[in-house]
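Deliverable D4.2, example record:
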Amino acid sequence: MHIAIAGNIGAGKTSLTELLAKHYQWDPHYEDVVDNPYLDDFYNQMERWSFNLQIYFLNSRYKQVLDIRQSGKNVIQDRTIYEDAFIFAPNLHAMGLMTNRDFTNYKSLFELMEKLIAPPDLVIYLRSSIPNLVKQIHLRGREYENSISIEYLSRLNERYEAWSQQYTKGNLLVIDVDDIDFVNKQEDLGLVIEKIDGQINGLF
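Output generated by the structure prediction step:
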């Protein structure tokens, strides 16, 4: 079984991936931010490094999906390959931070990869307001994220909402995270797990 968590920067994907992996004894697959050679450069000079960063993430997540399917294990993945292709790359293109030529190249590569992979059995979308995202980003204190603008986060949020409403590749569970704290409150985590159990039981 392949479960994936989607959501904007600071929505709580990594934390929930960790907690659910522990609860269900699933194998966690995390987004590559620590060893990513482009993130610092990208946040300092988005226009110059947007294509490089998106190609890096596309390659990394494609490899993850192949590994997940080949492992035969129950896996939970921090962020999906679809978010890069339908949210982050189009957003950079729309903001004038990725050229038409690079965006066309990127889309062509994604469409080729997409034919060779299966979607997750369940996608969990963590819906969050901008103030909540900003608070969480500041709390975790990643230096390269200090320059993220409210406008950038807002644009991503709009695209996440549109994408979640049009997602038809499989099962989607939407969880509003503004008023819950699944990291520090066991009862909130319990509510999230209850919702996930309902979805998983419906899959089999």
